[in-house]
Amino acid sequence: MIWLIIAILITAADQTVKYIVSSLSEVGDTLFSVGGLFSITHVHNTGAAFSIMSGKMSVLSIISVAFCVGVIVYWIRKKPTHPLLCTAVTMMFAGAFSNAIDRIFRGYVEDCVRTLFIDFPVFNIADISITVGAALLVVYFIFFDKEDKNGKNNAETV
Predict the structure, then answer these.
(1) Which is catalytic among the residues 14, 102, 127, 145?
(2) What's the domain range around 125?
(3) Is residue 14 flagged as an active site residue?
């Protein structure tokens, strides 16, 4: 239940920030900057990360929804319990779900965080959630997932 609450909070935070930015500015406007670190700049992205597949909202919407459905099925069938795995899956789900909302209901993804210290595409809270979740998943698989194909702990079979 806690993981559902966390997913709802991440989605709500992302959608709230997107709503505020789109309400207070026009596309291309910068609302404010924080030193040389980042600015809040209103951008529409009709693609995926780094504007890959730009203009293919239908395909990207289907991929986002399929991913979310896959995560729900995984969660119900496998019932993961490891906190790091649960956190990773929850973060990736919430980010994909929030960006899917944009793709389906807006026809684009609202992005607003622009880094000023490096030239990097503008992103949003959902993108951060997906990226951090994916990084945590890698950490989980490297350090904590010690099950082999037979379901035995690798430490016991050595």
Answers:
(1) 127
(2) 49-111+120-145
(3) no
pTM of the model: 0.87
Residue 51's pLDDT band (boundaries 50, 70, 90)? Answer: low
Give residue 145's pLDDT.
Answer: 86
Residue among 73, 84, 99, 97 at smallest CA distance from 133: 84
21 is a domain residue: no
In a domain, 155, yes or no: no
Q: In what order do the strands lie in the sheet with 109-115?
A: 30-34, 38-45, 109-115
What is the number of domains present in the chain? Answer: 1
Active site residue 29: no
Single out the residue of 124, 129, 127 nearest to residue 110, CA to CA.
124
Does the residue 85 lie in any domain? yes
Catalytic residue among 14, 29, 102, 111: 111
